[in-house]
Each structure stands twice: as C-alpha cells, then as structure tokens.
Amino acid sequence: MGNGMGRKLAEILLNVNSEIRRVLYDRLSSEMPVSPRASKVKKELNLLKTELSEVISSAHADMRKEAEDQFKGLIRKVSAIEFSDLRKTVPSVVELGALKAKDVVDVMALVNEIPVLGVPVKHWFETINEKDLSRVWFTLLQGIWMGKTTPDIVRSVVGTDRLRYKDGVRSVTVRGVKMMARTMTNHISSVSSQAVWSKNADILRGVQWVSTLDQRTSPVCRDRDGKVGPVDVAAMPEFKLPLGTRRLVPPLARPPAHMNCRSTTTPIVKSWRDLGIDKDDLSAGTRASMDGNVSSELTYYQWLKRQPVSVQKEVLGPARYKLMREGVNPDRFVNDDGMVLTLDQLS
User: Fold this and answer.
1) Both 291 and 226 in a single domain?
2) Cα 147 to Cα 125: distance, rounded to the nearest angstrom
3) Is 175 in the same domain as 205?
4) Please, are residues 2 and 186 in contact by the beta-carbon 8 Å criterion?
5) Looking at the domain assignment, is residue 217 inside a domain?
6) Is 206 left (phi over 0), alpha (psi -120 to 50) or beta?
7) CA nearest 260: which of 182, 178, 176?
8) How far apart are CA 162 and CA 334, in angstroms?
9) Domain boundary, last residue among 160, 189, 218
10) Which of 31, 106, 186, 320 has its CA 20 to 30 A from that of 9?
C-alpha cells in the first residue's frame, strides 16, 4: 500500500519538472553563464527564486491534497480488514462494533493529530516542500557560480528523461516522499486499527507488537516483537500483564518505530471463557517469516536462534552474536526507550 501511494505522490512532484525547466531557460542565458555579483543579476535571481517557489509549492500542495485523499481511502480499507479479521476470530454470537463512514473523519483527525516519530503530519509536508526548494536553489546558485551553462544547470536540478530524472537533485525529494509514504501508511494503519479496537475493547485483553522475521528488521523492532500493551495506550499505567510477558512502553506502543518501519500490531482477543462462551479456544495460528510460516507465538529472537550462525552474525554483528551465545538475553541489547545500547553499556 505504501509503495503505491509513494509512486503516486512522486509522480505529482515529477510532473512539474517540465515547468521548472521552462522557468530556468526563461530566466537564465543558455549561451553564457552569469555572475551573481552584479546587482541586476541579483534582482533577476530574486525573481527566479519567487517563480521557482510558486511552481514547487504548488506541486507540493497538489501532492498533499492527493495524500489526504489516499489517507482517507487507506483508513476505510484498513478498518474494514481489521473488523473482518476480528469477525473471523470470535464466535458469531459476539457483537462487534464496526467503523462507520462518519468515523473516518474522526480517525483522519487523529492521523493528523498524533505525531509520526515525534513530528506532526503537517510538518512532514512543510519540511519536504522547504527542502525541495532549498536543494533546487542551492544547486542553481552553485551552477551559476561555477560558470555552468543553463543546460548543465537544468540537468543538475531536474535530471534527464533518459535516466528517469534520477540524476537531478530533485530525485532526493522524490526518494524522501516515497519513504514518507511508506512510513505514513504504517502510521495510518496503526491509527485505523486502533479505532476498530477501541470500539471492541470489551472483547480484547491487549495489543501485541509483530515485527517482520527477516534479516532487515531493525534492532528496535526486533526487541519489541512479541511485547504486549493495552488496547488503550492511555491505560498503560494500570495495565496488568501475565507473569513473564514483556511490556510495550508508551509512547512507543504502536508502529512506526522508525522510517520505513514494517512492523504491525495485532489485537489479543480474550479467551472464549472470559467472553462467557462454553467453547474451546482456537489454537495459536501462524505468522510469516523469510523461510516460511512459523508459530504466531514465536518471537523474533526465538526465531533468530533457529537460524544458521551466518544469519545470526549478519543480524546481530559478531560482538552481540558472541554475547548471545554466552547467554546474554538479546532483550538487553535495546533499552525501554528504544535506544540500542553500546557494547560498553552491555559489558
């Protein structure tokens, strides 16, 4: 989902490359480079910067509008999937609360209100816009100062069709937008799922972190895999866990944990006996890993210990691999705040 959104948003930004190219050719001489010291040139540069700012900011405004439409669609999709999964998990006699159309507005407000990695959503868009213009402008000034021709400056800014614009400085913005889209998708999925869980909190006993079982999973997500927190994050201080269960710590109780985070969370349904139903509970299900399905009760480090030594060393590094083999619990490698501890701190 995130990759599709990222491609759509990136396309909107790339579509103005032709307009940026036109502005540069209109304002700069293609035959002779100019000196930024002359007062007349400074005036022309100010006009150029204003025009570039209008073009680039307009594209970012269109991108944000498209992003908000995509966000709403994602909220509806994720909430429907979450409700369907709950419906399959509990007996049909249990009543469930679904997210209604009017609730999407409230969830969208939460998406914008809850910070993503500590930063409000609107600031993500504002920062990307500012950095896009800044990179374009400094590349332009550098090209003028070095005496480059207009065609060379244009190539440095927007890139070439032949290389799909990946050779221009604006490609940095495009990559950033794609990364943001993947991160935002995770954020929206978390908030949307939370809305469904909140409507059905009476049948749930907690929420569990689920990380991807492969070699690319980050240290913080490896550490959080299998940890459990309450349905309502605000209820964390009063939340009681079974003995031996690891706790999620707010505000780190929901993904994303970092840029491009692939982790998710899943609700833990109360036992059928606790729900007043005289029926045996379902057995534990499975979860995906890079080498096939495994038990859903298997945590990342339990899975890692089953992997070849080469994989363990690749994931942990030789020093932490040695510590694990000597009996140090890998849970110690990251503290409760999600910070990876140094080898000195672990010694």
Assistant:
1) yes
2) 33
3) no
4) yes
5) yes
6) left
7) 182
8) 45
9) 189
10) 106
Burial class (CB in 10 A: 0-12, 13-18, 19+), 93: exposed
Q: Give the end of a domain, one of 156, 189, 222.
A: 189
If you average pLDDT over residues 286-305, what whole number do you get?
81
Per-residue burial over 295-313, b = 16 or more CB atoms within 10 Å of its CB, e = otherwise: eeebbbbebbeebeeebbe
Q: What is the pLDDT of residue 295?
A: 79
Residues 140 and 235 in one domain: no
**Cis amide bond preceding 251, omega within 30:** yes
Q: What is the pTM of this model?
A: 0.86
Within-domain flag for 195:
no
What's the pLDDT tens digit per position in 184-225? 999 999 999 999 999 998 888 888 999 999 999 999 999 999
Q: What 8-state DSSP symbol labels residue 202?
A: G
- Confirm whether 196 is domain-assigned: no
Q: Count CB atoms within 10 A of the CB of residue 193.
A: 24
CA distances from 338 to 189, 213, 218, 246, 343 (A): 21, 18, 11, 14, 16
Range of the domain at 90: 2-189
